[in-house]
Task: structure prediction
Amino acid sequence: MGVDIVAFPGGIGDSDSFHSLLKHSQDRIVDFVNNGGRYLGICMGAYWAGSHYFNILDSVDAVQYLSRPNTDTRRPHAKNISVTWQGTDTKMFWYDGCALVGDASKFKTVATYVNGDVMALIQGRIGVIGCHPESEKFWFDSYSWMKGRHHQGQHHALLLEFVNELMRSGVSVAD
Result:
């Protein structure tokens, strides 16, 4: 038996585009996850997992990182922001991404921001990430202050490990 996934990456625009893009599919996505499907949300897709949109996270919400206490940024523009991913410090493409706040006993923390807020987590069949491990070189080259800071595919490997773990989450040996 296969395991299905729906993925919502970041994108141009903001989380408010949710209502125009998904107003007719919202219940289908929630039912999909509730019936065993996996959800991967990156940046905007992570916000959409939160209480103002799909509301599929349990005791955790996606909130604007730049508004959090002790954040290392107060501006929403693109930057290479410091994170710790499974114990390793790195810098990752960020563009007004979310922090994931709530009951840490209800999820596995994969990455944190420098202020200690959760940047990436897996909660059962839901995986959300506030930054952009899927970022391409041209994303960095599009901003003069980011040129030469691409991760050379290292973050793609982290994302693949994350997705592989998400796909294994909650799957029994009989599946």
Summary: The chain has one domain: 5-168. The radius of gyration is 16 Å.
